Amino acid sequence: MRTHETHPSDQDRLGEHLVIVGNGMAGHRLLEALLKHQRRPSRITVIGEERAPAYNRILLSPWLAGETERQALTLRETSWYAEQGVELLLGERVIDVDRERRHVVTDSGRELTYDRLVLATGSRPAMPDVPGIDLAGIHGFRDLDDAAALTRAAETATPDSNRAVVVGGGLLGLEAAEGLRKRGMQVTVLQRSQQLMNRQLDITAATLLQDELERRGLDIITGAQLSGFDGDAEGNVRAVRLADGRRLAADCVVVAAGITPNAELGAWMGLTTARGIVVDAWLTSNDPAIYALGECCEFEGRTYGLVEPIWRQVEVLAARLCHDSVEGYVEAPTATKLKVSGVSLYAFGPIEPDADHEVLTYHDPQQGDYRRLLLRDNCLEGAVLYGDTAFGPWYFEQSLAGRDLGVCRQALLFGAGDAKPLLEEAA
User: Residue 348: exposed, middle, or buried by beta-carbon count in 10 A (0-12, 13-18, 19+)?
Assistant: First the structure.
């Protein structure tokens, strides 16, 4: 167990200025946690590059699909920050930090002095290094501007200019594809691997998902190797080229093929960086006054794109900034619960079985339900659920506990209702 204690005097905390660079979901979650604490820093400034206050990026997909209103994305209105005594600076980007003077400069010329600094600068779409990537009409799908641009592309499309290509068959790519399809575009999804969502699903669940999405009208190409984009004389994208020679007409392209941590500011400041800004278990960089959080940070060689580990990082850092004794952040098993275009998925542990795994499988094609469990020595190590995911949390609980499930093995696929009585009887 790693712990760190610090007990500065009240005088040390008096007038302490915390600056948070980044007003995304991680930075905002940290702010909310700090404001609940009696020993919060006395002065907090939040700097956000986007002009809108913090919003829920997970809802970008429903907004693109026309299933929710823009207002539903906002986490807190601008007035809330002032009510909490927080200085909010929107539409400003930090361009320089003097670590010796603890001095921050933004692109508007604003200068701030900090006692402690948190970098929560997030990530950006990983754009492929191929010819034509800079053509107009090629978008990421990470922020409000991206979603707004894609919405405009769909709304202004005509029957002769409504072809969209989505590069990436993970969660974000599939959600973007479904959103554009629901707005009337003809959509093709390109997936580099041989199956959709290869990091979360086994081949059976991925095939079920692909079949469902194709029934709705998506065209899905797996094993697709991107080679470049072609444009017209005005610099607009008009086609996507694949390595096998195929050329797909495209009036709009979405790249959703992974993320790159926004670590450039940290590197510019002289902080230790690899893929992200390298931090210790208390989210501290190699400068003890500077922390990094969320998608921009790297801990023990890992970077982050899911909210669960980032929320645990927030708990550690909030306590640290409020001078509480706190155990350091540690990696922990996580379960992935997703809803892809109306289809529920739940998965944890290894995706593919090894030679020592016992594989239990349940498949009900009529109901569209599929479960596959991986056991080793009667202990559950991994699961993939498609369709009915109600049993997912119970399976995950058994896995974390390392419970011997031998006595209920025959009932295990039918969930807690059938398996728990057998476990209780044997206890």
Answer: buried
The ranges of the chain with pLDDT < 50 are 1-13
Strand partners, 164: 187, 252
CA–CA distance from 387 to each of 116, 195, 308, 350, 362 (Å)? 46, 18, 22, 19, 12
For residues 114 and 201, give the distance between their C-alpha atoms in angstroms, rounded to a whole number: 45
At 10 the pLDDT is 39
The structure's pTM equals 0.92
Are 222 and 196 within 8 A, CB to CB?
yes
**Residue ranges with strand state E in 131-177:** 138-139, 163-167
At residue 229, what is the residue type? F
- The letter for the amino acid at 188 is T
The torsion angles phi and psi of 79, rounded to 5 degrees, stand at -60, -30
Rg (CA), the chain: 24
- Put the strands of the sheet holding 379-386 in their side by side order: 336-340, 343-348, 379-386, 369-376, 358-364
Which three-class secondary structure state does DSSP give residue 370? strand
